Each structure stands twice: as structure tokens, then as C-alpha cells.
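User: C-alpha cells for this one?
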Amino acid sequence: MPLLDAYIPANALTPKAEEALLTRLTDVLLENEGADPTNPRARSVAWVVLHRPEAVFVAGERADLPRYRAVVSVPEGQVGPKRKAAMVAAVTEAILDAEPDDRERDPMRVWVLMNDVPEGTWGAGGRIMGLADIAGFVMDDPDAARAYAEHRLAKARGVATPA
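Assistant:
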């Protein structure tokens, strides 16, 4: 159940490039979460929300080139440090690839913030969804999902995996 808030200034990209980018970001989220991006259940809970900043100022002045911000939220334990680094790199590349070829390719114009949503604080469908609930929906196997979630959360918290 990854969520990406994409902050893209108006007219920074062509409509076709922007739509392709938002689709690609869905794949990036799923791939780096360890999910199969072709799994319809996984895709159904991977959201990319487009935001239009009114303006972006850098050093106190209106930015001369577009600046992008991606805020990625994932359930606690789902994405470890290596996958987070890979996701930051992949999101950055996807955004820069969507830009016109004649624009300076500067990865410092893309900021990606990774947020772990603490277990017991992700709400969906009118209730709290833990990692086991989310994995259970995607995997369609509650017992395997519970074992998966216990393992991932224990690893993320640096504690022994429950027996």
C-alpha cells in the first residue's frame, strides 16, 4: 500500500510525459516495495497523487527551472534501507527522464522524501490497516501475510523474529 505524493509544477512536463511518468512511478513504488507491478491487487493499493505547487522558490527567488518533490509513504517495515535508496534513485531518474531532452538534467532539482508510516497508524477503508492486513490483501493469504509482517516488522525494529 505505497503512496507517492508527486509535486510537479504546472507545464513542467508535456501532458503525455506527465501521464507516463505517473504510471511509471506506480511501477517504481511496487518494484521497490518488493511487489509484482503486474499484480492487479498490488496495483489497486498503489496510489500516486499529483499536486500542483503554486510556485517553488530557491534561495528566496522563483526557481528558474522546475523543481520536483516526491513524498513516498510506506508501511513500517515494508521497505529497508537498500530499497529506500533504490526507490529514491528510481524516482529521481523517472522524473528526469520525463523532462524535455533540451532541459538540463540535474538530479538536485528532484527531492524524494521517504516516510515509514508507523504500524497501527495507516488508515484505509474506514479502519486501521497494519502491515499484515495490507500484505494479506495483496497476497490473498492471511496466514502467510501475518508471518511476513511479523518478520518484516521485527527486522525493521532490530528485534528477533517471532517464532
